[in-house]
């Protein structure tokens, strides 16, 4: 049994013994606790910061009506030429030479092609020979007539002296009158021959195909060696034209306007035309005329629109979007309004709103704007207040998109909005 002295000796520290080995268990426990704290802190930061915003498409707000003219109607149509012709020859013949190419500018009277003139030359040579023969006949009859007139005059004096019989004198007068009639016939025959020569000359000229007016060649339809005919008598092996020429100064726009909206269109009304190929180019113009007939199948009325600018970029059959503008009144002009896609306007708590994008593509947020809507213009809506030209709005905003939310702008939408 241990005594109290033995117990005290066991509690005494032995300083001569070597130090004990360090215990690393506590170190690993500390590192594990620190890692857990860091992980929890990062998760809390992510939860506080929020997930990346949704990707949205944007559109730029277009300012309209700044000059007092607002669009009352939009329509689509095509560029057409009032003067366009497929040029052909007046006669049937074989093409000898073609002097046109697509895109070439020609003036009125320029030679576009020539036909083989062999037949026309032969016909003209025959007409020349006939005219010369007629003129020779006139000369022969004139010589005979001079002799007959002299004979009749001589016999007239002899008959008055009763030196010759009256029958002989009457025969001389008859010969003279007959030669006078032959001379008239010969001269008329010469006139006919001269007319035939002119016709033969026209036939020779018809072998040359000329431009009827100044313009640009848009199609070349024939080649040397082919047969052309205005009547297409040879079937599929016969060409009916040399080429097609368009007067670019006569270009205008034809649009189809719905019957229910035609009352808004008036002759002389100002318009702005935008080609599908150049959507940023606005061409001013005005309404030329409203064609007084309707298309039963499409329920539309055709409207002719003139272009105030003539440019080489405008070519026939291009697609065009036309905005019909109301005339500016001498009174106070309207405040500028804006035009946005209809899909950018949504309803929030019974109000029409739009989400305006602020910032760049890397760090963008949206602001909720209440808007006052105007007319519906095609796929767009007129905004009377709440938006300004040049701002960007979200197209088809998500239902959970809120004011001040972060968004990611789609690359294609951002590029289109910054063009």
From TrEMBL:
Q: Which UniProt keywords apply?
A: Coiled coil, Membrane, Transmembrane, Transmembrane helix
Domain of life (superkingdom): Bacteria
Domain Multidrug resistance protein MdtA-like barrel-sandwich hybrid: start-end pairs: 83-229
Query: Does tRNA processing appear among the keywords?
Result: no
**Per the UniProt record, which residue ranges are transmembrane?**
27-48
Q: Which SUPFAM superfamilies match?
A: HlyD-like secretion proteins
Q: Which residues form the CusB-like beta-barrel domain?
A: 253-324
Q: In what residue span(s) does the YknX-like C-terminal permuted SH3-like domain sit?
A: 340-408
Give any Gene Ontology cellular component. efflux pump complex
Keyword Coiled coil listed? The answer is yes
Pfam (any one): BSH_RND
Gene Ontology MF, one:
efflux transmembrane transporter activity
Can you tell me which residues the record assigns to a coiled coil?
Answer: 131-158
Family matches, as PANTHER family = HLYD FAMILY SECRETION PROTEIN, MULTIDRUG RESISTANCE PROTEIN MDTA
Family label: Belongs to the membrane fusion protein (MFP) (TC 8.A.1) family.
Q: Which protein, by its recorded name, is this? A: Efflux RND transporter periplasmic adaptor subunit
